Amino acid sequence: MDWGVDTMIGYPVLNAEETFDLLDEEGIKFIEIAYEHFRGLDREGQDRLAEKIRDRLNTTSLKPIQMHAIFGSVNAELASTDKNTVERALEKIFRWIDYCRMLEAEVLVVHPAIADPNIGFRSLDTYKYSLEVNVRIFNRILRYAHERGILIAVENTLERVFGCKAGDLLSLIENVKYDNIGVCIDTGHLSVNHLDISTFIETTKKYLIATHIHDNYGIRDLHNPPLMGRIEWREVIESFEKVNYNKPLVMEVRGTNNIQGIVNKIRLCKLVGENLFSS
Q1: Which whole number is the average pLDDT over 263-271?
Q2: Distance between CA 120 and CA 127 in Å, rounded?
Q3: Quick check: pTM over 0.85?
């Protein structure tokens, strides 16, 4: 199977352009463009950075196959009961769709909207409300993305809320009006939540269009390279092969506090990709 690396691996020691240059020098082909590069910048700064990334990518052999949208407080804002807050949050997601198009990445990874857990007397009420909110929000997102030729991959969440399980994502996909939607499987999130990765792959196989591949010990979301945690990777790879997943597996590995450490992590990802994923 083909494989790639998320550019988060250079953050925060290297800026986006330096990260791209290093990945290119190390012979990496496929990448996901991380949100972390944009974190802390204002609107104009984010726009300028997207243009710089476009220009730098044109000087490398890297192929961006997916991009990560803004996430964090924006996901709660998308589920706000205040209309103006929702519109401002949607504008941010729309902007990332535009960046994705500019950078010629086919898929934008988006986290679900996270509703206030205090809404509803019963857990079932909260679930129903969360589904309704996400269907409404993603119909807006999908329409904007459809008009620009972008696929939206909804990622399973680390938080134990709507979106952490396969059934949540399938309910969302089956209830929206547009078909430019799929699933991004995050293996690390599934591990922390003690959910079976192979079952998730089999359940969502029809809709899998993006991956965040990383490892941990089932306690914290460490973003370790594969084989540095509790996940049984042979079983996971066999599951991807069983469902005929044909896109590169993207390793979403966290960087470190020095350049040599980042180089070592990239080389470790390369070893994993060439010897585990490609075997």
Answers
A1: 98
A2: 9
A3: yes
